Amino acid sequence: MNFLRWVEVMSLILSIVFLVTQVAWPLIRGTKPFPIFRREGELERGLDQKRQEKLNKSLEHKIGRKKR
Predict the structure, then answer these.
(1) Which of 13, 23, 41, 52 has its CA 20 to 30 A from that of 5?
(2) What is the pLDDT of residue 65?
(3) What value does the CA radius of gyration of the chain take, rounded to a whole number of Å?
(4) What are 5-64's pLDDT values in tens digits?
């Protein structure tokens, strides 16, 4: 029974930490809640932008080579 009580207490603590770090603290600071999910989106957008720039340079290089 002690194990179940321990799991219950740890679950409660983890839930509180999650709510504080992902909801309460961002709202206090004036930012959007759940920054952990937005961070991945920002990184993905940055990667997509870099890939697109690389593709554009590659295509411009190929087009320039064919025009000559």
Answers:
(1) 23
(2) 73
(3) 24
(4) 999 999 999 999 998 988 888 888 888 787 777 666 677 788 888 899 999 998 888 888
* Contact between residue 27 and residue 33 where contact means Cβ atoms under 8 Å apart: yes
Length reported for the chain: 68
Neighbours of 16 (CB within 10 A): 11
Find all residues with CB under 8 Å of 67, minimum gap 6, and list them.
none
Whole-prediction pTM: 0.49
Using CA atoms, how far apart are residues 6 and 12, in angstroms rounded to an integer? 10
Tell me the one-letter amino acid at 24: A
Which strand (E) or helix (H) includes residue 32? none
Closest CA to 26 of 15, 14, 38: 38
